[in-house]
Amino acid sequence: MASLKGCATYLALLTSIVSAAPATDLRLIQAVKNRDGESVRALLKQGAPAVDVNATQGDGATALHWAVYRGDRELATVLIRAGADVKAANREGATPLWLASVNGDAALIEALIEAGADPNEKLPLGRSPLMIASRTGKVDAMKVLIDRGADVNAKDTLRGTTPLMWAADEGHAAALQLLIQRGADVKARSLPAERGSGTEVRVAHPPAVPLVSRMAIARINGKWRLNDSTGKSRSTPR
Length: 238
Hints:
238 residues; mainly alpha; three-stranded antiparallel sheet; two-stranded antiparallel sheet; 8% strand; elongated
């Protein structure tokens, strides 16, 4: 009986502590979501501890995540100057630089790296910002990342795919040309993709060798195009 009373007392104390914990102030995040620059500036003027520029919502996203996601360069700059953490990752591991790379926003990528973001940061599955930008084919964004030191031959931890493979898989000729000019390894190979589990695991397709066997790159009439194994030119991969 005494032990039960002790447990009840402990639970009551724990509940009171949780109830007393202050709720996260999400006013700044909400203002950025609403693209309300006036409110963002007014809140930031209050400073810490009244307003935390790095406060997170339930999924770990900060005000800077939202500014970058919205492509709002002005508010992103305001937040960075106020001390926003450019390396903050949400619950899924996404950083502001990851979001800027997805959007192909060269100006925001430049601003984030200038403020301390790592162009070679490891995203979920070991992917890099350059891999993400290469997949979208945003050449301007890729140039900024490479000029800032991004590794053109970085490999993810899932299959060992490189930025060149990501660009080839999506058929981005301009992105392929840029990567090759900047030293991408055209002979790199990735591991086979597997699906299923246990005894049902099977190879989905052969290792990615986009520039040697499955695809090749040829300069035709002054333009970069993808060729299949038959040598016939086509603008996108099958």
